[in-house]
Amino acid sequence: MLDPRVFRDAEAFAAARAALARRGASAEREALLERVRELAERRRVAIANAEQVKAELNAASAEVGRLKKHGGDAAAVQSRARELSSRAQVLDADAHSIEAAFDAALLELPNVPAADVAAGGPEANTVVREQGTPLETAWRKPHWELGARLGILDLERGAKLAGSGFPLYVGLGARLERALITYLLDLRTRENEYTEVSPPFVANRASLTGTGQLPRFEEDLYRTTDNLFLIPTAEVPVTNLHRDEILDGASLPRRYAAYTPCWRREAGAAGADTRGILRVHQFDKIELVWFTAPEASDAAHEALTRHAEAALQQLRIAYRVVKIAAGDMGFANHRQFDLEAWAPGVGKWLEVSSCSTYADFQARRMNIRFRRHPGAKPEFVHTLNGSALGLARTLIAILETNQQPDGTVRVPDVLVPLVGTEVIGPGA
């Protein structure tokens, strides 16, 4: 969430409002900004009033003690003290109520974009760099045709089991998916020294509030009957590992890698890229999460993005890095780079990773801080995360890039030892 102090300083508030405006015009957000500022002022006044009455109560209590000590009549002052005590309780309750409303409204505001993030929507996104040559699409088949012909992707039975958007991988398709998970985890933990964690696949409300999915995006989440949520990304449990903790600054940066399945309803996405596994409700993903000191977060963002790119390079998939404009960024994002892999069978660039820095936005929601040295005042860390990679669309790119004219698919060299074959043919 935004620093609450922003709403107590006119200059800081104007700067935050201008930065948020780069996300695009929004009457709802403008109204929310004004409400948060109004609540901040009401909160300040309520706390001041409560403190003033408490000061008067303390003075009255002291006067009662003085009068009793010297044999004076304390009845009138005692009556005044009781009245002040009642008023203090009412004012305290009022201050707590306003503070709760302030905190709730603050959670609804998105993060401010970094100064170097362009204003505007998707049309303002820019390609930062490209790697590899996108293959032509003339004779190449889309992955759903390849998968059915090779017997490695059974969308009909997946839909029978759980509905559309829940793919079923079969035979070498399942082995290819498993090999990709193992390869991606090994790449990060061996080459870049990430600490591997295997988190729960469900999370509580506090965890999803901490990373920014709640309260605004509850409709996109799958929920259990006991008020837990199926995680939409490993970002949720892994970033919450250090919720309400103060870290040793000498231990930063901390870097974690985790594999999890992920679930998203993707409300409102019906009809968009629904063929094959372009858009699914359940998919596997390797997530990278960083905790850094504020001054190191920009360099960490570039390093994180390069780590995600390395996997695409070794898989020999053509890709590009796209810097996302403010109006197209995620709710909690401060800066965002998307990695888009070329899928020649469908003739599209597919997002396979989103590498983002959040500044202290998530850390404030989760109360994750660090000390630069023993005894130093705690500061909020900066959090970052990125997919390395999202498997469904990476599998699309692998299949469509490596298909051969005879209908077979060559397995990328780095995956051959794990898959156990160089070529996937019919009946796999």
Explain how this protein is built.
The strands form four sheets. Strands 1-9-10-11-14-8-7-2 form an eight-stranded mixed β-sheet. The chain has helices spanning 10-21, 27-69, 75-106, 143-150, 155-162, 172-191, 205-211, 235-239, 297-314, 361-366, 391-402, 416-419, and strands at residues 126-131, 195-197, 202-203, 222-223, 229-230, 246-248, 254-263, 282-292, 319-323, 335-343, 348-357, 369-371, 379-380, 382-390, 409-410, 423-424. A hairpin with a 7-residue loop joins β12 (369-371) and β13. It has two domains: 4-106, Helix Hairpins, CATH 1.10.287; 122-424, BirA Bifunctional Protein, domain 2 (2-Layer Sandwich). The chain has 428 residues and is an alpha+beta fold. The chain has twelve helices and 16 strands. It is elongated and about 105 Å long. α2 runs antiparallel to α3.
CATH fold-level assignment of the largest domain: BirA Bifunctional Protein, domain 2
How many helix segments? 12
Write the element-wise H/E pattern from the N-terminal end onward: HHHEHHHEEHEEHEEEHEEEHEEEHEHE
Overall spatial form: elongated
Unreliable stretches: none
What share of the residues does DSSP label as strand, in percent?
15-25%
For this structure, what is the CATH class of the largest domain? Alpha Beta
Largest sheet: 8 strands, mixed
Number of strands: 16
- Strand arrangement in the largest pleated sheet: 1-9-10-11-14-8-7-2
Question: What is the average per-residue confidence, as pLDDT, rounded to a whole number?
Answer: 94
The termini sit apart by 49 Å
Q: State the fourth-level CATH superfamily of the largest domain.
A: Bira Bifunctional Protein, Domain 2
Architecture per CATH nomenclature, i.e. the level-2 architecture of the largest domain: 2-Layer Sandwich
**What's the structural domain tally?**
2
Class by helix and strand content? alpha+beta
